[in-house]
Request: fold
Amino acid sequence: MTNTETLTVVGLGYVGLPSAALMAQAGYQTHGVDVNAALIADLQAGQCPLSEPEVVEVVTKALASGRLTAQTMAAEADIFIICVPTPVGPDNAPDLSMVKAAMQATAPFVRAGNMVILESTSPINTTRDVIAKSLEDVGLDPLNDVDVCYCPERVFPGRTVQEILHNDRVVGGLTPRAGLRAKAFYESFCEGSASVTTAAGAEFSKLMENTYRDVNIAMANVFARIAEEAGVDVNEVIGTANLHPRVNVHTPGPGVGGHCIPVDPWFLIDAFPEAAELLELSRNINDGQPRHFLERAKQAGLPANAKIGLLGAAYRGNIDDARDSPTAIMISEIAKDGGSWMTHDPFVTSMHIHDGYPANITDQLSVAIDRMDAVFILTDHDAYASLEPELFSKMRNKLIVDTRRMLDAERFAEAGFTVISVGSPTREKTNLLENV
Ligand code: SAJ
Reply:
């Protein structure tokens, strides 16, 4: 490999660590930095603490090759990449404290001629107001001495390595020179192409991409609520509507989870509250889905102080990530009603309420189903796709809320269950079976 520049990657999370490993794999001598000493100790011992098998493979290989090293301190390099979290606070205002702290710790190592790239999802103008400002504070001119850029990641958790390597990227320079240099850098280790724009344009593009998805999901959830009232099956209608060549209605469900889509629209709402009215409404519609399902369940006979089994804690299927999951909102709504709950997830074992879960998935599911007043299916894990009515036979009250359309509602109704499916009228039990 001929990539002779050295890199410092600050923030070794689910994007920073695989990115650093892929840069190392492309021949760059890469210095990884993180404030988490336990993580650094794992990496120094050659171990990758993330769970995606492909990520583990590239990270362990990069560590073993010596091209990727890890420390809690920044170090001098030709190119610096900042990949730290940018959450929102309790008031939904952006919390840039980690970007600021990372830049304060990194800026003293930056020299004239270097490039500094921010990858963290950020409000418009963060590259100018935080990154460039920190460089000015150490005596550098961010428009002339250093190339300063914004280049958001676009990875879909579960396919991290392939998406870093193959997705097209947008790179925004504070100057045209910086943009062109960042384009050449990303194209040196990624297959996707990089489009050059301004730093503010790239920041806005990232927020627009995730907000587009949030608003479209909110619209799908509104269509589902209309279908439930109108006595129509929303899935059939979405199927026919999507035959139109310019229509792509998204999938309704329990709301929107993950660390990006429920967060990023707030960066626009916070800065442009009037213009972003639709975005705030959409956020509230999506976060209101758990309450909506609870109200439907009450109408179908969910008792007060109900005990509810929750199948799925991850924010989407077949991953172990429960950050900002609709299940967390559902739990707080159940608590407001004085109810109790038991969660099951084949991947997110930290959210199991029960100690000592059995190893076998059917036995595990029984813990979250038997003697419950209702069972809510909240995550589209493959493991929940083929559940049979017999598994639910020991429920106290045969009420199932399927927020993901995982079950054959007809079959469950025939077996004596009341089934509430997203986007479809409630199906009452058609005959009650004794001792199913
Ligand atoms: N969801 C629906 N209906 C849909 C699609 C998704 O209810 O039609 C729900 C999912 O179940 C999940 C949530 O939305 O709870 C978000 O999941 P997701 O699969 O849409 O996306 P993430 O958060 O895993 O990843 C997104 C991606 N962005 C876009 O698709 C525009 C990814 O490319 C970004 O890199 C990532 O956010 C990020 O880091 O910003």
